[in-house]
Every structure is written in C-alpha cells, then in structure tokens.
Amino acid sequence: MYDVDYFGSDKCEVVVLFCFILDDESSKRSSSELRANLTELLRISEGKLSSLTEERDQLNVSLSEITEECSRLQGWRRRSEPHTHTPKNISHKENCCPAGWKKFSHFCLLLSNETGSWDEGRKDCRARGADLVVIDSPEKQGFLISMSTTETIAWIGLTDRVEEGNWTWINGAPLSEGYWKRSQPDNGGQPRSKTMQEDCAHLTVGLTITNNWNDLPCEWIQKWICEQSSKCDQDGRDGVQMKA
C-alpha cells in the first residue's frame, strides 16, 4: 500500500511550483508589456520634441525676418528726414510743404482724413494742386507705409483700367517695380466679363511688411495718399535752394 500522506505532500509541492512558474511567466509578460509601453511613449515624446524644435526654428526665422524689415524701414525713415547740417552756400526754406503734409525727398505727401472711391480720392488730390502718389523707389514705399502707426488702407495712383493686367501710373509711366502682396494682383479672381473689376491699387499704411499692395474695385471707399512737389525744390534739388 502507498502512503497517502506522502503523495499528498508531493502534490502540494507540485501545485505550489506550478503557481510559482505561472506567476513568474505573468511577471515576465507584465515587464515586457511595460517595456513596450515605455518604448512607445519615448518614441512619441521624441517625435513631439522634434516637432517643437522645428516650430521653434521657424519662429526664430520669422523673428529674424521681421527684425530685418524693421531695421530697413528705420533706415528709410532716417534717410528721408531733413539734414540737420546745411552747407554754407545752401539754405533750407521753411514751410516746404503745406500744413499736415509730410516731406519725402523733393515731394510732399498727405494721407487723407476723408474716405472715398479711387476717383474721388484723385479729384480731392487735384483740387489741392497734387495727385495720387506715384511710387518709384523702395525708399518711397518704405516712407509711405511708415506715415502712420495705425493700419490704414489708402489708394495710390496705379490702375489697369485701360487694359487688364497692364498696370500704369497716373503720370502715364508703366509699372516697373511693384510691392504686391503674395498672389496679388488677382482681379478678385474674376474673369474680365464680370462687372465688379479690381482695377485700382492700394497699399496699407502702418504695416512693417514692404510688399502690401492689393487691387480692389475702384468704387470701394477708403483713404488715399496725395503727392505734390516740395515748395523748396526750386532748382530740382532735394528741398534746397542755392544762394544767389
């Protein structure tokens, strides 16, 4: 006869050993799953860090471009300001421009207080002995957009009414260098047969971005910029008069 207690004891040991093995296998699986989860979290974190680093670099580039643009505008403003020292054989006249106008080179410029269509703006300028502004240099463009710290849309003397896409200044000169916004001019994305054409150009005063021209329907209501020759420009020089 077999000893029942003997075999019963062996059975308990086997059960305990089996449970230990199962627990060990479960621990191994848990550790493996935990390691896999941590690895995945690390991969995701590295991806987010890479994305944030890229965004930071893009912001640094944008900041650098804005800083450069501000420096260029400040340079234009300094160059356009009257000289503080005058040669002995040259004297400046006072009141080179009418009250409220700003002097740039040998021109006087006025940002209107009134609003109206492109034609109404030009009519107002001509009544003042001036006309809508013609922009023929980056320095002049820079000065115009710095005339106010408040963003203001204003008509300029540029139109393609005669021939779509052929932009011409009011003095008859063709446009040689423009400062258009991206994808402009676009005539509003409309074909020529539409009644509301975008045939008149405006700029935005108060922006630090040089390229800010846009085309709009000439009937739209907004301010305008007038231009006339400086009274000091008696001999074709920049606001100076030679002594006799």
UniProtKB/TrEMBL annotation:
Residues 35-69 form a coiled coil. The keyword Disulfide bond applies. Keywords: Coiled coil, Disulfide bond, Lectin. Pfam families: Lectin_C. One of its GO terms (molecular function) is carbohydrate binding. InterPro entries: C-type_lectin-like, C-type_lectin-like/link_sf, C-type_lectin/snaclec_domain, C-type_lectin_CS, CD209-like_CTLD, CTDL_fold. CDD domains: CLECT_DC-SIGN_like. Residues 104-227 form the C-type lectin domain. It comes from the Eukaryota. PROSITE patterns: C_TYPE_LECTIN_1 (PS00615), C_TYPE_LECTIN_2 (PS50041). This is C-type lectin domain-containing protein.
